[in-house]
Amino acid sequence: MQMTRGGLAAVAGAVMLAVAAGASPVTASHATQKPSGLERFHAQDVDWHDCALGPDDPTGQKLDDAGAQCADLTVPLDYTDPGGRTLTIAISRLRATDPAHRVGPLLLNNGGPGGPSLDMPLTVGTAMGKVAKKYDLIGVDPRFVGRSTPLDCGWDIGSTVFSAGKGRAGFKHSVARQRDLAKRCRETNADVLPYVSTRNTARDMDVVRAALGAHRISYLGYSYGSYLGQVYTELFPGRTDRMVLDGVIDPTRYTQTLLADSTEANERALHAWASWTAARHDTYALGRTADTVLATVRRIQQAAAEKPLRVGDFRVDEHFVPLVYFSGLGSDLDKPRADLATATRTLAHAADGQHAEPGAELSELLAAMTTKAGSQQGSAQAAILCGDVATQRGTQSYWRDIQAARKKHPFAAPLSYNITACEFWDGPAEAPTVVDNNVPALLINATGDTRTTYAGARQVRDRWSHSRLVTLPGANQHGIYGEYGNACADTQVNSYLADGRLPGHDVSCRA
């Protein structure tokens, strides 16, 4: 389930490709972290080149315009067999412009799992300001993501995160769909699925480190990227310098139902959005009270349960309507709230049988969720999560959890407790990483984060006693640094990245 940042178009599951032939049979991977057999990967030449792949590549063009360069590194598919099949990892670099005070490479991860990160040097460089001059900013598309060697299960939808719906029939449909998604992925990618995991992504990061000629890396990871960073510190002790984790996942709570912890936060965020929207009735015409706005949302859900809504060229059923709201509740800034209110007006027209044409934001979201356009990113996301923590619990355990939580959280529970494709996945090739260290890091979290809950950030802070936690009380925001416009939080991060000194104590920043 994608730990998404930003507004409505940052869809969960998009939360979130032909691989080279000739693979050996699937075997369990129990790779060690010693470089034995990895010398050729660590010592490989980095062939930097322009980033744009052609005239229709706005991301690459923006990187080129900023003076960035891109490269493709080679890593083993299976770290227990470094002489075997290989993959390509796409990276970008915005070089330090103050070499006299250069700190080294700062690797960046945008979250997901399955989120592309190649363009992150642009946004992070802007947030860092003058501090960026001290770093080589390195964007990395993880294995099977973005421009790296891809993975695509050939799905007709792009999200494995969706609501169970109103009743048992809807839940049964969810079970059947998730079983089918897992089956398709196994049939098309069985040869690589055992090697799609956070542990192997962390190993790839260390190949990037070595190929860049760095003894240690600094790291900035958002959301799922915070989990990836923690795993890296455990697999490669002593190889990190300055670490910033924004939207912090407690690794002990990293499971196939990791969104369950965010149920209450999403329910609260929905009510807060309804109040914001009610105060702008003259703009959105959804009601002058929060209750009236919420009644419209319930009417939309009821109509979608009876018959999929016609929204432009899309058909949106009861399983995906709640995901539209979930995707829009990752921020309490005006822009994403306005996007969600606009989407609600469109969905309300569809629920009333009127012509409903989605705007650009909603159209992008629905394409990523409900069509094969989102298959590649959704496939990578599911493969990473399920490759990390798939556990066969029994389908009825999800239904019991949904029913137990539905009375108190009628909007969020059917989505956050719903079954996932991981229930039908093959077991992980390796056990999840136990993060049992104490790395100094700067942690950032809002108390109302609707993806990575504040309680999880507190757990990591308590476990990493040498770290410091920057808190934004009362904010319903996922992704703070450079995203929320909070000068206090941004200053804390930039000060730490500038001199490597953590604050003397935890910091509370007014939201």
TrEMBL record:
Which InterPro entries would you find in this protein's record? AB_hydrolase_1 (IPR000073), AB_hydrolase_fold (IPR029058), Pept_S33_TAP-like_C (IPR013595), Serine_prot/Carboxylest_S33 (IPR051601)
The signal peptide stretch is 1-23
Limits of the Peptidase S33 tripeptidyl aminopeptidase-like C-terminal domain: 413-509
Keywords, sorted A to Z: Hydrolase, Signal
Report the Gene3D superfamilies cross-referenced here: alpha/beta hydrolase (3.40.50.1820)
**Domain of life (superkingdom):** Bacteria
Q: Which SUPFAM superfamilies does UniProt cross-reference here?
A: alpha/beta-Hydrolases (SSF53474)
What is a single molecular function from GO for this protein?
Answer: hydrolase activity
Residue ranges of every copy of the AB hydrolase-1 domain listed in the record: 105-256
Q: Which family does it belong to?
A: Belongs to the peptidase S33 family.
Output this protein's name.
Alpha/beta fold hydrolase
Q: Which organism is it from?
A: Streptomyces longisporoflavus
